[in-house]
Amino acid sequence: MILFPAVDIKDGRCVRLEQGRADAVTVFGEDPAASAMHWVALGAEWLHIVDLDGAFSGQPRNADLVGRICAEAKVPVQLGGGVRDLATAKAYIQAGVSRLIIGTIALEQPELFAELCAALPGKVGVSLDAVDGQLKSRGWVTDAGMRVADVLPRIEAAGAAFIIYTDIARDGMQSGVNIPALTSLCEATSLPVVAAGGVTNLQDLKNLAPLCAKGLQGAITGRAIYAGTLNFIDGLSYTKELRAA
Asked: How does pLDDT run across 214-231, given as a tens digit for each residue?
């Protein structure tokens, strides 16, 4: 299991939202690059960056900052938020992003999503963000009118490299992970799955551990490591032990 520390960027600051709501913001740092380097210094093996401004606007808003983080971090970076055309996707890869997380396009423009996957093989994943199984898009503000099971065959056929599943109701709420939903997803797809939303403490990582045998690749943690309910070094040690077992 890989533990992905989240660096969410909004208005030039490192923040966390509650349930993806733009009006429920907690600022954890004035310099997202400094936050990213903090987790790298503690041993992070990956960084999970979200351009929230891009997610809400549909346009990349923090590309220069993301490029700077990639150059300084020296660890792989996965990025989501505002990637809605091939030119933007290629520009981020050229700037040093290791893999891209696509949400809106994967749900609303399947042909374009397939084009992205073909142009950047192995580097494009899908963010499936749901409330009670109902998928959301456009920065989680639009009901996509689909459920997870409806889109899995299509995104697999298009060439998606991985899936990030977010339980929106739990995101930023420190309420624990949705094990039943993640279990169903892991059993329904052959793609690697990354869990997001609700990771609160070390016990949540232990609860996720059995899913590694079913295709769980990792877990994203944000508010928990900033607020201190999950000690990042302890979480990192645990996930490394899992991989070594």
From this structure: 999 999 999 899 999 999
Instruction: Show the 3-state SS of 92-116.
Output: HHHCCCCEEEECHHHHHCHHHHHHH
Is 143 an active-site residue?
no
- Residue 208 DSSP symbol: H
- The Cα 190–Cα 238 span in angstroms is 25
Task: Examine the residue annotation and report whether 8 is marked as an active-site residue of this protein.
Answer: yes
Query: pTM (2 decimals)?
Result: 0.91
Kindly name the residue from 8, 51, 171, 204 that is annotated as catalytic.
8
Residue 140: in which H helix or E strand, if any? none
Taking only the tens place, the pLDDT of each residue in 144-176 is 678 888 899 999 999 999 999 988 765 555 567
Residue ranges of domains in the chain, CATH in brackets: 2-244 (3.20.20.70)
Backbone φ and ψ of 128, nearest 5°: -100, 110
Q: Residue 213 carries which side chain, given as an amino acid letter?
A: A
With residue 2 as reference, give the H or E element that holds it.
Answer: strand 2-10
Annotated catalytic residue, options 51, 129, 167, 171: 129
